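Q: For a teaching handout, I want to show students what a protein-ligand complex looks like in token form. Below are the inputs, and the small molecule is phenylalanine. Please produce the holo structure.
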Amino acid sequence: MANLNQNTEREQWGSKIGFILAASGSAVGLGNLWKFPYMAGKNGGGAFVLVYFIILFLVGFTLMLAEITLGRHTQLNAIGAYKKISKKWAWVGGLGVLAGFIILSYYSVVGGWVINYIIKSFSGALQVSDAEVLGGMFGNLIGGTWEPIIYHAIFMIMTMTIVIGGIGGGIEKSSKILMPGLFIMIVIVAIRAMTLPGAVEGIKYLLIPNFSAITIGVVLDALGQVFFSLSLGMGCMITYGSYLSKDTNIPESSTVIPLIDTGVALLAGLIVLPAVFAFGYEPSAGPGLLFITLPAVFAQMPFGTLFAILFFFLILFAALSSSISLLEVCVAYVVDEWKVKRAVAVSGIGLAMFVIGIFASLSNGPLSNITIIGGRNIFDSLDFVASNILLPLGGLLLCIVVGWVWGTDKAIKEATNDGKIGFSLAPFWSILVKYVGPVAITIVFIRSLI
Ligand code: PHE
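A: Here is the structure, written as tokens, with phenylalanine included.
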């Protein structure tokens, strides 16, 4: 994989599959495994999934292609890329950096929970199928004061260590084994979950839309989730695309990455929601769903402990391959524009994120009475601002810059390697970037304000 230190000569991805893996590594993470199932559970199941798919097809693929193309064309970090298209729009990249900063601060808290669950699974503490016990265990962890902060620190240090070293060899090589590993494991666990007695209700809940459940709140959540899950709207795919060589097939990559991402999210949903119904939880239980249902499923499997250990490790890996991309967007900017040493940038930014994360963590316990946005605690407010506001806003502005300022003709020329690659949907894509994307995002914004 590329050396992301932009002070040295710009490197490129080792191979085509290297890029696809790194970009899907960024996309596939806690967003798919932890957030998607509980978002679906909270927003009426099938209703959410249906809206998610509509937005994925209209906006997700479109913006994936736009970001990667912009990155490869400019060969620059998020802010630099916008600046190169037009000085007036550089601040859009700045919004992305801000979003990355906010997201990683609480993402790391959840990453810490995963590390704690790895340890719990080694100790056999998770070998229970009693809903109450598992719920209590999760509540105790996240509601604590020191314990979740310590694990949050460990996750943040892991992320920082990888990014300081340059995410070179290690991550690309390990992705080649761990990503397919995650996929195989998740299929096995999904089969077990879907065959639990009573699981069918969960499958129906996730896949059959109840149209009356579709409200503007559901649409805004689905919009935010598409951006979050695909790592869009904050320049992450611009940065990764900037390490691409001129002969890659961008239209193809922009199709494959969202398909992998969505496949993993759906499988995670097909583990968590069937288990919710089989064990009598509430689908709307929130951020704890993954952590409460998974152990219950493992307890019903042969070699449950082994599965639990492996699975939580794979979740951690998926989380790290996303968190490094979040940190990298901020670091690349500071290294490039402020001419700060990489290790210094990583330490400073990582520390600041860690401190904000402390508040996010405490807001699940001692500080839970502090509410910021619409009754949400600090943790949920950070997520709301980043996912539901900053990322879609970044996407809207990306549409404007690529569709109108740079122009779709030039973008298509870049995406097709000067016409050498077939891209039959190009005219359709132009319409999506110039009109459908901006209009759809604006409507959702305005409607949800009212
Ligand atoms: N897509 C990642 C996930 O699903 C999170 C992420 C968001 C990463 C934005 C980079 C940028 O976990």
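A: Two things your students might notice: Residues 26-27, 29-32, 103, 228-229, 231, 234, 236, 322, 325-326 surround phenylalanine (CB under 6 Å). Confidence is low (pLDDT under 50) at residues 1-7.
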